[in-house]
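We modelled each protein-ligand pair independently. The example shown here corresponds to the magnesium ion entry; the chain sequence is given first, followed by the ligand as SMILES.
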Amino acid sequence: MEKYLPNIYQKSIYTLDYTKLLSKGIKCILFDLDNTIAPSHINEVTEKTKELIISLKQKGFKVWIFSNSPKKRVENFKNLLGIDGIYFACKPLQKKLKKFVKNSEFQLNEIALVGDQLLTDVAVGNKVGITTVLVNPVSTKDHLVTKFLRFFENQKMKKLEKKKLFNKGEYYD
Ligand SMILES: [Mg+2]
């Protein structure tokens, strides 16, 4: 298993086939926040995002935010979207994700983590053994640390491309 290869790769949280996720047995979706749900410098959600979350709940998913961002930012989005969330998730460290799985009602194969970064979101999800979904960042504005990580992310992507495992813009699920 490639450490940085996502199980699913989609353009955005809106193009992901959630019905297919359901059919694969996924019951719980953890969303990264910054540049997955909203640009990292924005504190609002769009109607489109609200509608997506509502539709996911209607489909029967348990939806969480799983973010490295601080409490204040995550709390704001929890309130805006009416979902639960974990802040300072310390991705790619496994501790908080493992704790989440242990305290949850779900098995590893019932949880998916959706995020925009290979080195944090995909890495931690793969390590813990849940389904990983990579989406494109919704904004090109990154936090300083993320900017730094993008450099290494590009190198990982190139390695995966060389092995013919991954191609930027060639989506799969
Ligand atoms: Mg992110």
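The mean pLDDT is 96.
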